[in-house]
């Protein structure tokens, strides 16, 4: 905010309201979204005791896994992919408009000017794309070893949007999540409490955060 106000001081046309809006957008888009994704990941893992033990074993080994690399190759990375697939932070349709002369798409015709979009949360539960268990948290779907299947999962995961509507900060977000998740499980014992129905019942707003969830971090004595 200080930097934005400094620009305002030099260029009065750069109004205070505009500076305030940019600062708010930076916090909401760059911080709240990543934080909400981390909460979802930790809650999904820690509400499954057996899965949590497997993640802890990986993260407390001699070499910590990168949890959000190019390809999910560990249980931890698969959990991150699956949690963020089911819990898209931005639960809105980033719409487009059908061009002049209309649009033919998958056997349907949309006249010129038609507003088109898809809800990421509903899309992630499409059984035609993700299988009959699309609405279930199953990290193993990312570890099948089938490259064609993996490419399909990646292609239709709208965590960071898609094509021209994709998040410009997604690489930074992947890096943060990929480093923070293993470090937390390495250095802490985590206890999670999620309200009943918390994974499926959340306000129909721009953000879809797991409101009411509580995570307790207990430092490990032998953590490195």
Automatic annotation (TrEMBL):
Residues where heme binds: 167
Family matches, as InterPro entries: Cyt_P450, Cyt_P450_E_grp-I, Cyt_P450_sf, Cytochrome_P450_monoxygenase
Cofactors, names only: heme
Annotated GO MF terms: heme binding; iron ion binding; monooxygenase activity; oxidoreductase activity, acting on paired donors, with incorporation or reduction of molecular oxygen
Keyword tags: Heme, Iron, Metal-binding
Ranges in a coiled coil: none
Keyword check for Heme: yes
Stored Gene3D superfamilies: Cytochrome P450
Domain of life: Eukaryota
Pfam families: p450 (PF00067)
TM segment ranges: none
Family: Belongs to the cytochrome P450 family.
Protein name: Cytochrome P450
Organism: Trichoderma gamsii
């Amino acid at each position: 905010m200080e930097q934005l106000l400094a620009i305002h001081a030099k260029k009065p046309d750069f109004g205070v309201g505009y500076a305030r809006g940019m600062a708010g957008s930076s916090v909401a888009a760059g911080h709240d979204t990543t934080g909400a994704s981390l909460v979802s990941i930790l809650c999904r893992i820690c509400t499954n005791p057996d899965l949590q033990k497997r993640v802890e074993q990986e993260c407390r080994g001699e070499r910590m896994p990168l949890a959000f690399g190019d390809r999910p190759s560990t249980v931890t990375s698969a959990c991150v992919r699956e949690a963020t697939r089911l819990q898209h932070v931005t639960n809105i349709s980033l719409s487009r408009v059908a061009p002049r002369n209309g649009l033919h798409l998958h056997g349907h015709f949309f006249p010129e000017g038609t507003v088109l979009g898809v809800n990421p949360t509903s899309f992630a539960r499409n059984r035609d794309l993700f299988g009959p268990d699309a609405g279930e948290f199953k990290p193993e779907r990312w570890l099948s070893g089938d490259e064609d299947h993996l490419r399909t999962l990646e292609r239709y995961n709208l965590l960071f949007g898609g094509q021209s509507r994709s998040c410009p900060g997604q690489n930074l977000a992947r890096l943060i999540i990929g480093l923070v998740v293993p470090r937390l499980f390495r250095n802490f014992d985590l206890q999670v409490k999620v309200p009943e129905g918390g994974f499926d019942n959340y306000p129909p707003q721009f953000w879809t955060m797991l409101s009411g969830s509580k995570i307790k971090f207990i430092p490990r004595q032998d953590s490195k």
